[in-house]
Amino acid sequence: MKNLKDILPGRITTEKEELFCYGFDASKEEGLPSAVARPYGTDEVSRLSEFAFNNGIPIVPRGAGSGMTGGSVPLQGSIVVSMEKMNRIIDIDEKNMVVTLEPGVINRDLQERLEAAGLFYPPDPTSMNFCTIGGNIAENAGGPRALKYGVTRDYVLGLEVVLPDGTVITTGVKTRKGVVGYDLSWLIVGSEGTLCTVTKIFLKVLPLPEDVITLLCSFPQLQKAAEAVPAIIASGVIPRAIEFMDSGAVEAVESYRPVGLPSDSEAVLIIEVDGAENVIRQEAEKAAAICASYGADVKIADDIYSRERLWESRRALSPALYHLKPTKINEDIVVPRTEIPQIIQSIRTIGQKYRLKIVNFGHAGDGNIHVNVMTDKNNPDEYGRAQAAVRDIFEETLRLGGTISGEHGIGITKSKYLGMELSKASIGLMKGIKAVFDPKGIMNPGKIFP
Question: 20 to 30 A Cα–Cα from 131, which one of 117, 291, 349, 353?
């Protein structure tokens, strides 16, 4: 690796202790890279890529390692290209509402900088306090506000990327319209680092909403909470978020970080509306009335402190679940909103069938349910039942017209299920596209395709 170290003097490590720190993500899958590089800019990424291409060495672009499907876990011998040093917000163009930034910028840091300027970047994954925008692009991350505002792909105007051989290209535009050739930006978003390395990002942003109202709705029956979600949307109210937590999720978070969520409910909805103050007051009242008609007790979190406590409880859910069982199989299925009651009932039945605790929460407003099968990887019988339960859940999701991944991607952990949703012809076409970008197969190999 002597020649590699000459490319970025002092910023390439092969020390085993440091390599270990870049060998896993939130999926708990593990690998060990041969080296970790920390470039400062596009030219350095280009030189690294050219070296790897000429020597046939795999490259794994990496943000904060917060992904849930093993997308940034390196195969043996890979070079991890960590974007932690490429973390500048280069320009905030307030008049055109366009931001230029590097991939290592933390989502929360971008949100705070924009809000100070009266601007708003809607995508807000649960890991927003530490995940990077580059990682969000790799997975096409969403979050609670996707219901009203869409996901990461909806805000990417253009990208600067480094191809596997070191060539630098710019895709897309910095304007709101542009149809010159194929839209490579939208192809790269969600490709999990398997096509190229993103080095610069052009995002559109919005004016900051005038006001926000948050409701906490507690339901005595899980099914009624599921039924209330499509009823709210059908009424003409489009909240910026409708988050769902079943009783297992409430119990877990209250044991881990208590915020006063009602422990006697089968489910809660956190509903948030934003916009002009006079308009959202009416929308909040309408949503509250609908939930009450389904048996909910409704409370308003009408100050920023109360709202933040509710959202902190939601963001604490993922780590809280490890207090229930040592292993969590976290899946992010999506079904049409009208099928939420059916999928919730089916998941209950599957949990009973396999004698497993399954905890559900997520972005119910857009049908994205995070299904957490709680198990123990060191118990072969139980873990085998958990794997069987996941397949049953995926089959039921697809039967209802849904998809097996809404925002976590495929990575390693879901690759064996790819053929459940996609045809051989579709998968073959995708592999062909990858081969055009990456003829030597060095970009994050072993991900997506089984």
Answer: 117
